[in-house]
Each structure stands twice: as structure tokens, then as C-alpha cells.
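USER: If only I could read C-alpha cells as easily as an amino acid sequence. It would mean a lot if you studied the pair and described how this chain folds. Here is the record:
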Amino acid sequence: MPISPKFLSGSQIRQTFLDFYAQRGHKMLPSASLVPEDPTVLLTIAGMLQFKPIFLGQRTAESPRATTSQKCIRTNDIENVGRTARHHTFFEMLGNFSFGDYFKKQAIAWAWELSTEVFGLPASNLVVSVFREDDEAFAIWRDEIGIPGDRIQRMGEDDNFWQSGPTGPCGPCSEIYYDFHPERGDNIDLEDDSRFIEFYNLVFMQYNKDAEGNLTPLQNQNIDTGMGLERMAQILQKVPNNYETDLIFPIIQSAAEIAGIDYHNSNEKVKVSLKVIGDHIRAVVHMIADEIRASNVGRGYILRRLIRRVVRHGRLIGIQGEFTVRVAESAIALSEAAYPNVRRREAQIKAELAREEAQFLKTLERGEKLLEEIVDRTKQQTHQQISGQDAFTLYDTYGFPLELTQEIAEEQGISVDLDGFEAAMKEQQIRAKDARQTIDLTVQGSLDKLAETIQGTEFVGYAELSSLAEVEVILVDGKSVEEAAAGTEVQVVLNQTPFYAESGGQIGDKGYLNGSIQGENAEGLLVRVDDVKKESDFFVHFGFVERGTLRVGDSITAKIDNSGRRRIQANHTATHLLQSALRKIVDDSISQAGSLVSSERLRFDFNSPRAVTAEELQKIEDLVNSWIAEAHAAEVAEMPIALAREKGATAMFGEKYGDVVRVIDFPGVSMELCGGTHVSNTAEIGLFKIVSEAGVAAGTRRIEAVSGQAVLDYLNVRDKVVRDLGDRFKAKPEELPNRITNLQNELKDTQKHLAAVKSELAIAKSDQLLSAAEAIGEFKIIVAQLGDVDTEALKTAAERLQQKLGNAAVVLASIPEPDKVSLVAAFSPEVNKKGLQAGKFIGGIAQICGGKGGGRPNLAQAGGRDASKLQEALESARNLLVEGLG
């Protein structure tokens, strides 16, 4: 009795296949490890790989027939994973094998019986392909199975000649395709994957291929078949792609839940990322279960690459922090029945994932930021290709695999210079050989190497402005040193610090490191700290040793600049209030697009399709100042991110959040997720003043403002300017606008009068040229320079001369300013009929002076930059006119 094709689970399909062939004398064997015995391949890529020695006659088969469900890994089409309906890195191949027993006829008959009678696929939905030279297989399908000849396709080596690798057993094959749309008729194109899916491949293994590509017959004729479990599941479960089958979709749902999204309501880009996660997690779970460890070579590199792709695609869909272990739990649960070792190795799988993910997350954010800058820079270039050196910097300093850089670049429509990358790699290898065997550290990335020996920096600056600390690392010129003397620029890592490191738009604190009474330096040490940045888990203090000697292991007092911190806190809280006011007064959909918080000012970028009006800006400023005057107390708490979002907290642009977040709440006014420092009460801000509002990009506006002491500084500067203007104009401050308007009007009138005078002067000068007009046949020409006359006056003079001369061509020039040349040509209609156009003519003349221009056939003007070439240009103009009109 055929099984109903309505629905079979992945597990049922696997077991049905194995049982079918076991009932026909095939020994049911377990899947081989993903680590193959075959040295020619890194990973198990096909079901036949464990039987390769048998096919080659190197080993005797325990049974003449076998059947397996083989786990496989292929990464040659990794860029297609998630983008097509059926590409995977991990998949299961259901196979039946004959070792010199049955051959084409029996293999074809059983494949057809299993497909149509057991799985219940209608014969009308099936199409077959054979190797173009395999008349025997064609005849079996047509004459014994009964498939019409027009539904048997002959295909070439690329499609229907199978080989396991560059060398080894191979042979022609025959494939069975499922037709999702038989109603489209007999116009069969098996390349159309929207209509056809190849689900069963019958390989007639009869040759061995050597390193030179020569084919020799095998001792026995063998059968090697493969049915894609995921593909058959798609067909029988009637879903649009392999990913939505019960073999993978539960993993996708697990990732979607962590991201807080719904797969079916997501756009295609998000779906691709979820599919990549679903596919790759299956792959890495089985690879680790088969005792593959992440590394930078071989199959370990493939594992590392897959894990990093999972992490990156998780970030693309909004997952922050570590998540791969949770998604892996779904993959383990789905696989344990068929592959019990995934459950036995659960602890190792989770440990390896957690370690690799944590390591990659430390460098990923910096690498992504740098790559974004590189991509933006590359897009502005004519040759849109990321340089090999940039790609190598990402790889060497930030742990970015070259393939990941290529993938991200491809998404942006640009390429990567692979030859340049290889050259940079070779240069680095040469340098490494010549380098001394010392720790060579740079602040921008190599602090990660210290993570195994020292702990990250503990930040105590929310509650303390100074604290005792121990010096853990000193860097000078990017290299780790044991001590640094006075006069040295240093970067210092402490075990704990009150200094805030630049983050979320807020700049790093300034201050000092002092020798404490416990240290050998007593009170003689003083290090000025000018900036603090966070690298991985370390706070790096950028400073200068002003006196004493700083040593690793010193106990010191780290003290921030209290005044600077207070001003920064005021500006940071004011930024939160500004965002809240913008949403209330302009548009509640406004979102942050960037920010800068320093001790002098604050800058807030936000998404808005229009400018904020002057009236709205005043209302915003008034509202913020009213909140300041109302003295709202801050409530700071840490809570699960889901709870924070439920409460309505706003996320800060560019920040990365974990499961637990810090919430800054001024009840009734503003609530945001923020790791920055803030005032404890809005009254501490003092005052808020908007300085400017402008557009910085399409759909993005920027407000700059000051608060607290900076408002007084801002007003003092403007008060000084107003008093100075009042003294100059002998006017009170309130009279200045009218006085300045009157002066502007007077200036405009004067400029108009001056222009008229210049025009009259140009006309007077030009009239003197009438008597010097040169006759060329029936035409008159004038080519002359009129001193420093401006362009408008020059144009007026040229038109006037042409009109007075009648049938004429006039070219005038002037030097109105140093290194600026003006040229005008006025031609009569008769001159135009001789083929001379004023626009083209004057444009060519202007090129001699390093300029360009053009205009109408009868009147045109041009400009140039090289006044020294003017005489040459005028001589050229005369010669061209004489030639053209003669």
C-alpha cells in the first residue's frame, strides 16, 4: 500500500527510505563521521565517501548491498545558502548502494517504485535526466518504466556525470526531478528551479578517474544513489523551500524568537539571515559532535567560518549578545533520534560555540565599523574595489575572515582585491619571521591577546569619581612595556577605573593617575589622561607621564576631572530631554541617527523628512527648560531588555545591548536604554540653548545645543559681539536689526549704481573700437581687450558693437580680477550662416586660458583662469574669424 503523499515528517521519510531498501537485501549502516578517511577531501561530502575504498577494489564489502542516511557538509556554494530554496552547507543524503551486485536496471526500477508507489508521487509530476551518451539508461526509462521519451532529458558532463572528487570512482548518472507545475506543458527546462527540483540521483559507478583525468573501468559495476532528505521533505510537506520543512524550520523559529521577530512577516533579507542561521547551526552542531574544533586551518577553519557567519547574521536581524548555544539546543533536539552523538556531545558543542562566539563578538563590532567606513570610502572611488591592504587589516587585526569581507562587499555591490590581499599576507609573514619574539601589541585590536592572562576593566565611574587601581598593561608606541618614564605618551589598562570610555556618543573622561601611598612611587607619579576608549573588555587610558615612572603592577589613584564630567553629564541628559521634546512637538516617529556628547556642547542627529521650523525649535527649547526647572529626579535601574522595551524605553543609536540593560528614567519626561553618565536631577543641567538646526543627509537633520555652564559661555560670546556692533553703529541692541537692514539696502543701491557706471564706461571704451573694426570681405570684425570691465558690462559692450557694425563678429575680453578672464562673442545672423556659432567659438577660445563656456549662436560668454594666455587666445580668435569669414 502506498503511503499518503499528503505529509511525512523528515524522520518518517528517512526511516521509510531505509526500511524500503533493508527489505530488499540492503544492510542498514550508520552515517559515517563528517571527518572522512579520504585524504583528498576535508569533509564528508556524499553518502558514497565511506564506500570509496570498496568501489576502488581496495576493500571487500561486508555486504553486497547497503543503505544509509549520511550527514554531509559542502561549502562550495555557501553564498547561495538562504538565498535559494535548496542550497545548504549541511544536508542528509539517503542512499542505496550496490557493490558489484545489481546495476542500472534494478536501481532504476527500485527508485521508480519508491518514488511513485511508496512516497506516492504522481508519475505525471516526474521527469528524468540521463547522461547524453547513456543509451542504455534512456532505454530502461522509456521501454521498461514507461516514461515518454519527451520527459527523458539527455544532459552533459556537468549535470549527469558524477565524481566524488578530483580523482576516484565516477560514472554517468540519471536523476529524477519533481515537476511542481506540470500544467505549464511539455516545454521542459530542468534549469528552471522554480518548476523542477532534482531529488534522486542514481550514479552508475563504473570508472576510476586518475590525477591526469584518465578514466579506467572499475573491477565491478557499482550503484551509488542519493536522495536529498530535505528536498523530499519539501515535496511531501508541500512547503515553498527546504528551510520551511520540519527538519530546519524549528531552528529558524528559535532564532526568530530570540530576535523578537516573526519569520513569515519578515522581509526577504531577514528571511535569508534566518535561513543561514538555521542551516549553519545544523552544520556546526554535527561538526563539533564529530570532534572538529575551530581553528584557522582546514576543517577547523570551515567550522570557525560557519560560526562567525551565524553570529553576523544574528546581528543583522537584531540579536545582541550571545545566542548560538540557545539555537543549537533546537538543532540537537531535532537530530538526536537519528544521530545520538549530538546529545552525548552536547556539553562540548555548547562550550565550543560559546567560546567561539564570545571571541568573535569581541572583535566583530570594531571590524564592522571599520569595514563600513572602508565600504563608504570605496563607493566614492571610480574603481569600486576594497584594497587588498584594507581586507588584510580586517583579517589580521580584527579577525574578519576574507570570505566575510567579500560577502559584505558583494552585498554593497563592490569587490575585493584578492591579489592585493595575498601580497599583504606574504609581507606580514616576512615581517613575522624577522620580528623579535616579544609581545607586539596595538591598541586597536591586539589587547584581545591579553584576555587569557588578565581580566577586563571594572568600571566604577557611575558611583565614584576616583578610585584605587592597579596598572595591568602599559603600551608605548603600540608595544607592551614594563615601565614608562616622564615625558612618554602611554596607553594604560587598569584593573578598575572611574573613567568613562567613549561610547554611545559620549566622549571619554579626562583626569589624572596619581601615585598612591602604597606604590613605590609614593606621590611622585602623575599621568595626565586625555582620553579613554574601550577595546574589547579593557578601558584604555590615553595619556602622558608628566612626572615619575609608571610601572606595571603599580597601585595608583585614578581621578577624573570633576568639572568636565559634570558638564558632560548635563549635556548627555539634555540630549535625552531633547529627543523626548522633538517627539512631542515635531513627530513622535522621530528616531535618533547619531549623537555627540562632550563637555562643550551636544549634537543630536535624527531622522526627519523636513526641517524643524524656528517656531518649533523655540517650543522645543522652552519645553526642555521647563523640564529642567521642574527638577525631575533620575531613576536608574538594570532590567531585562524585554521588560525595558515593554516599559517603552528608547534605544540609543549605535549601542549594542545584552539581555540585561541599564535604563535612565526621568519619570514622565524621558526613558532610554543608556550606559552613559547622567545628572541625578534635571535641575543640575541649569539651562538649555539650541544653537543650530540643519540637514546633514537626505532625511537626516542635526541639532546642536549647549547646556549648563556652556550656555553662559555661549551667551557671553554673543553678548560681546552685540556690544561691539552697538559701539560701531552707535545703536542700542534692539536697534541693530533695523540699522543693519538699512545699511544692506544702501549697499545694494550703491552696487547697482556702480554697475551702471561700469557699463557706461565699457560702452564708452567700446565706441572707440568702432573706428578700428577690420573688414573681412563683406564682414566687419573686432577682437579686443577692455581692461578690468566685469562680465555683464563686457556683454553689453559686445552686443552694442555688433548692432552698430551690422554684419559683424565681435570678440571682447577683460580681466575683472586677478587670474580671472572674461570672454564674450557677439555674431550677426550672416556670420552664423558662414558656419560660425558664438557658443562653440568662444568655448574653444576659452580653453586656451584654461576655461570653458558657451551660449547661443549669436551671443555667448566664457571664462578662464590663466590671464597670461589671454593675448594668445585673442590672436587665435582673430585668425579663426579671418579664416572663417574670408
Residues 346-379 form the longest helix (34 residues). DSSP finds 24 helices and 36 strands in the chain.
